[in-house]
Every structure is written in structure tokens, then in C-alpha cells.
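Workshop exercise sheet. Pairs work together: one partner reads the sequence aloud, the other fills in the structure field after running the prediction. Swap roles for the next sheet.
Pair: D.N. / O.F.
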Amino acid sequence: MRRMVAVAVMLGISAWAAAPALAQQESKDDLRKEVEALRKEVDQLKQEKEAAPAPAPAPQEERLMKLGDDSTILDILLRESSISGFVDVGVVWNLDRPDNITNGNLVEPGAPADGSVRAFDRRSRSFYLHNAQLNLSRAATKELITGYNVELSLGSDANIIAPGPSAAFPDTDYFDIQEANIQILAPIGNGLDIRVGKFATLAGGEVIESKDNFNYSRSLPFIFAIPFTHTGVRATYFVDTESKYSVSLGVNNGWDLIEDNNDAKTLEAQFFANPLPWLKFYANLYYGAEKPPGPNFGDDNGDKRMLVDLVLAVSNIPGLEKLSAYINLDIGEEEESSNVPTTGATPDDAEWLGFAVAAKYQLNDQWAIAGRFSMIDDEEAFRTGGFDPVGAEPLDGIEITEVTLTLEYRISKDTIARLEFRHDMCDEDIFLDHGSPDDSQSTLGAEFIITF
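Structure field:
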């Protein structure tokens, strides 16, 4: 009996001693379950946060109000601006070695006395710093409707675009503010793009920057048939949401003018169509008085100049993705004009016709070949200002053609080298072959371009 009581007492003491340990183990298990549940909640919150869409940007009005005490619209424009540019250098040899070392003997409007049928590469046996261009721009958006574009050009090309010393840099002929305009994207329909200031012309199959053309030299219509720049206001509206069709209207001071030379203005209009991904069409019209006042120039406000410019361009054609090409037609007319100021006699109306067709084929990532044919038929020799190289007598009309072949090699992503052969022909003996009049000339040119 005593033995049984002793065993019972011992079992009771053991159970009492083990109770805290069991309770502690149960407490740990409960804590572990709570921690695991909290971890699952945190993981779920993380997943929900990552899956949630980004907050919508603040509207324009709210954004402008929160600029801060030291911030302005200009601060935003500069912060969001892009900087780009290029350097374009070259050299040209006239294989006919004319005594006057010019590539032809025509004097284009505004050119110095050693002008030629060429503009940007007019002088033979010469190295060129064609263009060191710096571009600063900020495109307008629906959030910030104001933008701008500035293109500064330094080099011999600047002297062609804006002949003579500039007002800002009177000691040099080689600087030009090629473009400088303010952009406003008015919230009308799909957006009305308004540009105010100086901008490039709408006309032509080529542009001022050689890097964006197929060839090193420029076509005859680009030199003689169309303007380069305008100063005024231009509005462009895309009539569809996919930007396939647009119309542009503008008014400016005239052809290649910053300040107007008369009291009249020039109107410009463009219709653009991109009906297929590989096809683009441009129809441009310029109309207005371009003469300065004076007794030798007729009615400076009444005699109008008109230009119709048509461009058809193709690229990335299905099955011919490596081919790009364009056709350009220019028809121009100016009332009562001639190639020299009149002296009492009534001048004839001037008419000119320009045509160019060019193509470029990308052989591979580095090599490309390009070819071009262009012509200018200039009645009254008004746009070319043609003079006989021997007698210096004005020509009553002239027709010039050219054929150009260009081989292009892309040294790196941002560096281009070109080698070009060009042959110019004329219905008059305006060229010089070792000092003797001739109706043709051949030139060889090389160009190097680096972009940034």
C-alpha cells in the first residue's frame, strides 16, 4: 500500500513539473503560426503593389503650378531638351581643271562672283568644312504644349544658305542661325502644330543637311528652283489620328529672308499623304512678291512669284526593303523678271522647270550606292543668272543636266564616308576645260560626316 502511494506521488510530481514545458512548447507553436501568417500577408501586399498600375501624371495646369519658387517654363524646356549635331567635311576636284578653279561659270542668285552650277561644292581643288551644326530642341507635347527648335550652322554651307556677313557675327560669312522657331501644340482636334520663327522650306526632295540626302552634292532643282528657308509662321494639322494625312498653311517674309524686302508677304501651303507605309507624297505651293522696291525691279508688291513643288518618295517597299527613292518636280514663275535689273524696258515673265530622280540601295549594314539625275530648264536665265564665260554676255535661257553616282561606307554607327563622281552638261558652253569653253564638266568628291 505504501509502495502504491509512493508511485502515485511520484507521477503527480512529474506531471506538475512537465506542465510548464508543454505550455511553453504550445506557446512557441502559436507564435510560429502567427509569424507565418504575417509573412503571407506581407508577401500578398507586395504582390498587389507590384501589380497595381502607375499613378496617372499630373495634368499640365497642376504641373505648372508645382514648379517651385526657382523654376520656370524655361527650366522645364532645358531639362527636357535634346542636343544633337554633326560635322561635315569634304574635298572636290574638277577633272577638267578650269583656270578659274570653279565648277562651272554660272552665278547663282546671291552668290559671289566665282559662283558655278554648283552651290555647296562650287570651288575645285578645295577642302571644305561644310557644316558643323549644333541642334537644340524640345518637342511640344500634350502635357507641355510649348517647344522650340534651334539649329546653329558654322561652315561654308552657312554662307550659301545666308550669303554675306550675318548681323550677329559681322566679321564672318560662315555662321548662320539656320533655324530658330517656337512650337506651340494647340489642343485643337488631333493637335495643331504652330511654328513661329525661322524654319526650312517645305519644298524639295533634298534638305540642307547633306547627311540626310542620298548624295554628297545637291541636285540642280535644290540649288536653283526652290528656296532654302523662310521666316514667318507655319501651322500643320494632321487630319487623322494615325498621322497619315496633313495640311500646312503659312505666311512668311519670302525666299531666304529674315527681314522682308517689300511690303508683301509670301503664302505657303502643303498637302502630305502617307497612304501606304512605304509611300509618301508632298504637294507644296509658294506664292508672293519677292522683289525689293526700286525703279529697276518693277512692281515690288504686285509682281508675284509662284512655285509648285511635288515630291513622291518610297522606302521599305515589301520585297525591296533596302531601296529608297524619290521623284521631285518644280514649276516656277515670276512676273516681269529677268536675270539683271531692268533699265526702263519691260522685262519678260521668268519661268523655270526643275526635275530630279534619285535612288539609294543599301547593300549591307556598311555599304550603299546611290544615283541621281537632275535638270533645270531656266527660261530667261533668271534663277541661274547665267553668263557666257568668254564674253560675259547674259544668256536668254539655259538648260543644265547632271548625273551623279555616290558610294557610301558607314565606318561606324555615327560616321559616314562618301566618294562621288558627277558629270554636268549644258546646252551652252558655260564650263571651262583648261580655260577653253565647253558644254560639260566632270568632278570627283569625297565627304566625311560624324553625327552626335
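Discussion prompt: The chain has one domain: 60-451. What would you look at next?
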